[in-house]
Amino acid sequence: MQELLSGYRIKTIFNGITIKLFSFEMSYLGMKSSLKRIVIVGGGFAGINLAKRLANCDPYLVTLVDKNNYHFFPPLLYQVSTAFIEASNISYPFRRMFQGKRNLSFYMGQLLHINLADNTIDTENGTLSYDYLVLAMGTETNYFGMENVKRLAMPMKSIDDALQLRNHVLLRLEEAARSRDVREKEKLRNIVIAGGGPTGVEIAGMLAEMGSHIISKDYPTARRGIGKIYLIDASGTLLAPMSKKSQEEAYKVLRDLGVTIVLNTSVKDYVDNEVVLSNGDRIVTATLIWASGVIAREAPGLPAEVVGRGRRITVDAYNRVIGLSNVFAIGDLCITHADEKFPAGHPQLAQVAIQQGSLLARNFMNMAEGKPLLPFKYNDKGSMAIIAKYKAVVDLPKGFFKGFLAWLVWLFIHIIPIAGFRNKLMLAFNWLWSFVTNDPTLRLIIRPEKKAKT
Question: What's the predicted TM-score (pTM) here?
């Protein structure tokens, strides 16, 4: 009898706990329905920093919308495209990132239209409601109206672009190895890079290193696996946003690596495997890499008057879209003239996006607590660019340095923002192994069924 009573008591206590848990769940569901909904469109530096800083903050339910199911690190795309590191080293799934964050969710889809009157957005996979909308879609490649270039050139804005470029270059080298026609070999092996900014400089240096130390070993019958590398820029210098010392160092290092640098000249067309330059010259090549400009992604549904030059959305000091009370824009997508140190707008750099995302998260918390909003002031921490193996330049607010030390700093700084401990560890290991051996093993044509641009 005592055993039966004990069993009954245990059952009663168990049922009591169940009832309490059930009541808690019902209470939490009710609380969720009263929370403000923040929808963030875009999971780049700006969007992901905003989302992560709002994690587990009860005043808000946050939904991140992106056309990909992963966050990636754009500054290292060129190393993926040159078969130096794996795409997985610089990518991280959103859903893995949001595990354990009770108020964060992910929605896969591309923005189609913003319905300001209804406080909803249409995506390719459905409609979402919001109390606050944050636009953080970043930029896309700008071809300046050149349809042939848009159709045939290789951009460098996404993981897909990087893998496609890797396939394209390797396929052209395989074709060149089989060809017996001298002009055909020249066309297949030559590479033209349009744009002398950090991306153009970095990929030119990496391809030159590949040609000297890696590809020539893979193709022993050729004197150099890669032919001539041309770097074209419309301005009078490389790395235009950086210091004169950085510009001069980049020019010297690339020239010593055998890169042909053509300045004060722009690409005007790409016809019949020939790059047409503004000075009338033509370069025979099967590979045109386009790193010459960007334009903000479209945000259909916003008033035309808030969209300015380069399609950037005009915002106030708090990153709120001008004339709208509950729509914000952050990162490369937006421009503000409210920061007295940058009256023409902030540069489209990762640090600006990171800082804007972080401050907007703080301002959302201030709104929930009835505190005043803080205006955005960009803290310029400097800029850097890698040029080649053991060669980099670093511009700081109080100085400049270059060479091996700058290269080490560049490696360290670029490991820190990579999402996931395993990603950081694998990236560091892969970098070390590739630099020591001068022979990474990632030269894989992993999607040959996808027709390369010719």
Answer: 0.86
